[in-house]
Amino acid sequence: MKNYKPRIADEILARRLRGKGAVLIQGPKWCGKTTTAEQQARSILYMDDSDTMRQNLELAEVAPKKLLLGDTPRLIDEWQLAPQLWDAIRYEVDHREGMGHFILTGSAVPADKSKMRHSGTGRFAWLTMRTMSLYESGDSNGEVSLKELFEHSSSDLFSTNALNIDDIAWLICRGGWPKATLLDKEVALDQAYDYFDGVVNSDISRVDGVNRNPERAKRIFRSLARHQATQAPITTICSDIVANDNVEDIRETVSSYIEALKKIFVVEDSPAWNPNLRSKTAIRTSDCRYFADPSIGVAALGIGPRDLENDLQTMGLFFETLCIRDLRVYADALDGTVYHYRDKMGLECDAVVHLRNGKYGLIEIKLGGDANIDAGAKNLKTLAANIDVKKMQAPSFLMVLTGVTQYAYCRKDGVLVVPVGCLKN
C-alpha cells in the first residue's frame, strides 16, 4: 500500500495468524490497526462503511455466516458494531481446517457483551496496537536493540543520538499517529487535537451509549494529563474538577468517564510489578496512569512544543509517557509486558520490561542531565540489590532511558544510558 510504513505489529500479526484461527487487533482509533491488517488480509468487510452499514448490521442479526464468506485471512473491520459476529467466527474457526481464517479490528470494547456467549479461548489471539514508536516513525536510529540487551552483554554498547530538546518536544506533541508522521510539521501537530475533539465530543459517549458531557470530559482529561506517570487515585481527579462541576456523585461519574476512556484505548495504565525482595518492603500496587500516546495529554492541556520546553518538569512527565509507549511496542515483539515499581520507602522504577521466559530489565526514565541520570542509576542499583536472586533471576540489564543525552553507552557501574532516539525492539 502506498505510503505504508512497516510496523512491528506486522510480524506479530503474521505469527498470531499461524497459531490461531482468528486474531483480534485492538487499540485506539487512528493508530493504524486497519491499515496493518489490510497488508495481510485477502478479503475485507468494513462494518462501518456508510453505503453498506445498515445491511451489514441486519445480516449480522439474521445470517452472520454470510458476512464471513471470502478469501482468508478475512478482515472484519470495526467488528464490535455487531458483537454477535464473535460467536459466528468462533464456530467457523472450529469447523474449518488450518489457521489464520479471520482478522478482527476494533477501536472499542463492544458495548453489548451479552451477544458474545463464548470467551474465544483457544480460537482467538489478541494483539494490542499502539501509535507508532519512534523507531517505526523513523525518528530513532534503532542502533540499540532491546532484544539484544536481553540476550548479550552490553558492556561495549555505543550509539550517537541525533535528537535534541526541540526534537523531543515536537515528537511528544506530534505523537505517533501514522498520518501525522507523513504530514508537514505544523499540520502534523493538528492531528492530536483533532483526535482529542473526536473523543470528547463523540467517542466517549458512543462507546457504551451513555451520554457524557464534553466539557466535563475535557476537565477530566486535563486532570489526567497533570497526573500522568503517577499513581493518582480517583479522589485526586475528583478534587481537580469538583470546583467547576456540580454533580451529585462525583466519584462515580469520574470513574465512569475514565472507564469509557479505557474502553476506547485512550488511557492505558501500567500495572505494578511485584518482585521477590530480600526485605519486607511494602509495594504500592496501584496502577500508574498513562495516556496511550503523549500527544493526547498535550491536546488536553492545549499546549505545544515551546510550552513544554519552558516547563521541563511537565515535559519530563510527557516524555515518560512517550517512553512507556515505545517500550510497550518493543516489549510486545518480545512477548513482554511493561510494569512499574513503587514502594512505600520511596524507591521506584519507571518501567520493568518483563518477558514471558522470566527475564526482565529495570528502566528509569530521565529527560536528561547528569544529576538526573546519576539519581536514576542509583535507584536502579538499590532496587537490583534488594531483589532476592535465589527466588528469581537477576535483572538482565539496568537502564536509564533518556531524551537528550548525546550517546548510548555503559557506565562504569554497569548501568546503561540509552537515548530513546537510539532504541528499537
Describe the structure.
- The protein is of the alpha/beta class and 425 residues long.
- The protein folds into two domains: 121 residues, P-loop containing nucleotide triphosphate hydrolases (Rossmann fold, 3-Layer(aba) Sandwich); 281 residues, no CATH class.
- Helix content is 39%, strand content 16%.
- The strands form three sheets. A seven-stranded mixed β-sheet has the order 7-12-13-11-10-9-8, with helices on both faces. The protein has a five-stranded parallel β-sheet with strand order 2-3-4-1-5, with helices on both faces.
Short overview:
The chain is built from 14 helices and 14 strands. It is α/β, with parallel strands linked by helices.
Task: Describe how the helices and strands are arranged.
Elements (H helix, E strand, L loop, with lengths): L7 H12 L2 E5 L6 H6 L4 E4 L6 H10 L11 E4 L7 H11 L6 E5 L17 E5 L15 E2 H6 L6 E3 L4 H10 L10 H22 L7 H13 L7 H8 L8 H14 L30 H8 L3 H5 L2 H22 L2 E7 L5 E8 L4 E7 L3 H17 L10 E6 L4 E4 L5 E4 L3 E2 L1
Parallel strand pairs: 1-4, 1-5, 2-3, 3-4, 6-14, 10-11, 11-13
Antiparallel strand pairs: 7-12, 8-9, 9-10, 12-13
Helix pairs in contact: 1-13, 6-11, 7-8, 7-11, 8-9, 8-11, 9-10, 11-13
Number of strands: 14
Strand content: 15-25%
Low-confidence stretches: none
- Please provide the ordered H/E string of secondary-structure elements: HEHEHEHEEEHEHHHHHHHHEEEHEEEE
Strand order of the largest sheet: 7-12-13-11-10-9-8
Distance between the ends: 24 Å
Number of domains: 2
Total count of helical runs of at least 4 residues: 14
What is the SS-derived class?
alpha/beta
Percent helix range: 25-40%
Average per-residue pLDDT, rounded, comes to 93
* Overall shape: globular
Rg measurement, Å: 22 Å
Biggest β-sheet description? 7 strands, mixed
